[in-house]
Amino acid sequence: MSFLGPSNDVTSVDLFQRDNAKEHRTFKYDILDKNNPSLVIRRGDPFFMAIQLRSAYDQDNNKIRLEFLFGM
């Protein structure tokens, strides 16, 4: 897949694991006690995430493509 225009690299992603766990009623799961916990959310409910880009996002020229992997 090719994209026109310059790329705008992702520098960090925050999945708000603990905040999302409260909203999804998964906060008691042991997996969230780790230093770098996994995201545990329920199917069909919205969740929050923040994506930091190298430069300002331009909705006319930048496209964001998300790929989610489950059970890894």
The order of strands across the largest sheet is 1-2
Low-confidence stretches: none
- Based on CA atoms alone, the radius of gyration comes out at 15 Å
- Portion of residues in beta strands equals 5-15%
End-to-end Cα distance, whole Å, is 24 Å
**Element pattern in H and E:** EHE
Structural class: mainly beta
Question: In percent, how helical is the residue content?
Answer: under 10%
**Total number of helical segments?**
1
Instruction: Please tell me what the overall shape is.
Output: elongated
What is the strand and helix layout of this fold?
Blueprint: E1 10-14, H1 17-23, E2 50-53
Antiparallel strand pairs: 1-2
Describe this protein's structure:
With 72 residues, this protein is mainly beta. The chain is 10% helix and 12% strand. It has one helix and two strands, in the order βαβ. A two-stranded antiparallel sheet has the order 1-2. The radius of gyration is 15 Å and the shape is elongated. The model has no long low-confidence stretch (mean pLDDT 82).
What labels would you give this structure?
elongated; single chain; 72 residues; mainly beta
Short description:
By secondary structure, the chain is mostly beta strands.
